[in-house]
Amino acid sequence: MQTPALSELRTTFPRLLLEHAARRPQAAALREKEYGIWQTLTWQDLARLVRHLACGLAEAGLRRGQHMVVVGENRPRLYAAMLAAQSLGAIPIPLYQDAVAGEFVFPMNNAEVAFAVVEDQEQVDKMLEVREQYPALARIWFDDPRGLRNYSEPGLESLDALAEAGAAFDAKNAGFFQAEVDKAQPDDVAAMFFTSGTTGNPKGVVHTHLSLLDRAHAGAVFDRLTEREEVLAYLPPAWIGQNIFSYAQWLACGYVVNCPESTSTVTIDLKEIGPTYYFAPPRVFEGLLTSVMIRMEDASAPKRRLFHWAMDVAKRVGPALMDGKPVGGLDKLKYALGNLLIYGPLRNTLGMNRVRVAYTAGEAIGPDLFTFYRSIGINLKQLYGSTETAVFVCLQPDHEARADTVGIPIQGVEIRLADNGEILVKSPGLLKEYYKNPKATEEVKTPDGWYHTGDAGFLDAGGHLKIIDRAKDVGRIKGGPNDGAMFAPKYVENKLKFFPHVKEAVAFGDGREKVCAFINIDFEAVGNWAERRNLPYAGYTDLAAKPEVAELIRECVEKVNADLAADEKLAGSQISRFLVLHKELDADDGELTRTRKVRRGFIADKYGVLVDALYAGRSSQYIETQVKFEDGRTGVVSAELRIVDAKTFPALRSAA
After folding, report:
1. What is the domain count for the chain?
2. H or E stretch covering 495
3. Does the residue 506 lie in any domain?
4. pTM for this predicted structure
5. Which of 515, 521, 506 lies closest to 601 in space, CA to CA?
6. Cross-strand bridge partners of residue 115
7. Is 538 helix (H, G, I), strand (E, B) or coil?
8. Last residue of a domain, one of 183, 198, 213
9. Residue 653 gets which letter from DSSP?
């Protein structure tokens, strides 16, 4: 089956479901691993389940235009619940399953939510806690009944009970479901996604069936996706990236979406499924590579020598082969040998042996990391988009994937640059509005349909988009030898995070005479580094305080400074001083968003004493920090933090 024509996608999600069920009823739509065995749900079975859930929701009082939250991991019956709500003209709102109950109160109150479908006992408990502050939450349905047998809360039922009630309703009202599906139009609201809220309350991004399906279709055409693709859905459904890949494009193309048993089995499930179409943020690719390199360091000397020989060949030859460029006969032979002995088994170990297209987005990916995957035969590419643009704005064509760009504008997209360098986008995938927030909508959407992305960048000579930083975050150094120099904090932070030993970084410098930074080490990578050097440690705080670790990170910082010195515009962003934080930045502590974006302003306020110490020239600073544990308890982490000076380099001026 070929990808549907765009005219065919002036439709809705429920209609696409029914079309797949009618055309190929026994084909697999969703798979879920349960008790170690993959269970398949066909398109016909899915359509029946959605019909019954929709009828049950209607009988429970869900009406057209109302909102229903969905909270949990990727689960077939949660997907079915979203489709059921959309079948009635209601609007599903997926929320982050790892959020604490208090984080649900604002979006649910903002959207006036009375209905919730959740995965399990953990999410039920959160909803019951939310209901203490938001009594309007009347009905809660759960998918997994484990641990919920003795719960007798009003309005709490299983999805099984909802489906049974819906089946009885359907039997008495045979034409109801189809009539409701037929009422929906492509321009009707299909879903709402709450932004991560780096600087305040999250905003509800309203998308229509058309805006989501148009971008899903454009991405499918670009990469020639068909119903034969296999996808592993393991990222949060509340993140629009996962929603586009495993929901919108799933229904647009009709391929198979596989749901892992749990977050702890994702790596195993990845190997078993062998997806053909794969998406992950850079941190996932970094984690996979880190685990490989750690295992390789523990291998025998002959194996390490073979691995390094093969990787030297791959780095020299692999990217050219991936880009379809000519390669000498001897190099081809060496690469083939490396593929037999190293690259093929490595792709299999990573679960990427069948990957035809792999994408990364959300943050910049390190050039070495990007090159590694492409050099071993994985077609890793970058894309550019956001919640407000339904993800797909720019994609990298095959044979044109580079680490320093995010691709070319795809079908239906126009890009222009504002006078201040901000990227403006016009696309059929733009948000309809921010819910109940006309002022915010007016700030980002012009009357003639241009969306202000907030990102600063430019189009290179080949038409590829390059991103520098968030436009509002680009600042200037004030005073000192670099007075007036551009400061791009995210650009600097990303360059630091390209090193496997650095998990997170926060750079400061706007309006100051120099740049300073907080560093989070990668506990697994640095822990393995320490163990190989017989360096004992008793946890993250202890390891982060080691002078040897400070020296390791200093080397990383100075390499970044050397790179920045070669960039005439950003040479002033070199890091003069840094410290290794005593705790990992955490979304539960308000330091990161649920999509792991740094809340720089919040961190600057929370750790103001550390920022002051960096700029006051102190060599160390004591701090106590309250932290929140997974079970809701709070505690205090304290440490005397070492402050390290880093070498900076003269800017390399370009020739006149």
Report:
1. 2
2. helix 489-497
3. yes
4. 0.84
5. 506
6. 68, 139
7. coil
8. 198
9. P
Rg over alpha carbons for the chain, rounded to the nearest Å, is: 26
Rounded-to-10 torsion of CA 283, 285, 286, 287: 90
Among the ranges given (116-120, 505-509, 597-601), the one the predictor scored with the smallest mean pLDDT: 597-601
Q: Look at residue 97 and tell me whether its pLDDT is greater than 90.
A: yes
User: Tokens 């700030």 identify what position?
Assistant: 443
Would you say 453 and 424 are in contact if contact means Cβ atoms under 8 Å apart?
A: yes
* Tokens 């970044």 belong to residue: 560
3-state secondary structure of 224: coil
Neighbours of 529 (CB within 10 A): 20
Q: Which domain holds residue 60?
A: 6-198
- Whether residue 382 is contained in a domain is answered as no
Per-residue 3-state assignment (H helix, E strand, C coil) for 291-356? HHHHHHHCCCHHHHHHHHHHHHHHHHHHHHHHCCCCCCHHHHHHHHHHHHHHHHHHHHHHCCCCCC
Nearest Cα neighbor of 206 from 116, 111, 118, 117 is 111
- Is the alpha carbon torsion for 545, 548, 549, 550 positive or negative? positive
Domain boundary among 157, 177, 198: 198
Give me the numbers of helices (H) and strands (E) for the chain, helices first please.
23, 28
Over the stretch 334-364, which tens digit does the pLDDT of each residue have?
999 999 999 999 999 999 999 999 999 877 7
For residue range 438-486, what is the model confidence (pLDDT) as tens digits? 999 999 999 999 999 999 888 988 999 988 887 788 889 998 888 888 8
- Nearest Cα to 494, choosing from 587, 647, 365? 365
User: Residue 536 has what DSSP assignment?
Assistant: -
261: left (phi over 0), alpha (psi -120 to 50) or beta: alpha
Is 41 within the bounds of a domain? Answer: yes
The rounded Cα 356 to chain-centroid distance in angstroms is 20
Q: Pick from 504, 517, 502: which is nearest to 573 by CA?
A: 517
CATH number of the domain residue 111 falls in: 3.40.50.12780
Amino acid 419: pLDDT:
86
Query: Is 221 within a domain?
Result: no
Question: Which amino acid is located at 388 in the chain?
Answer: E
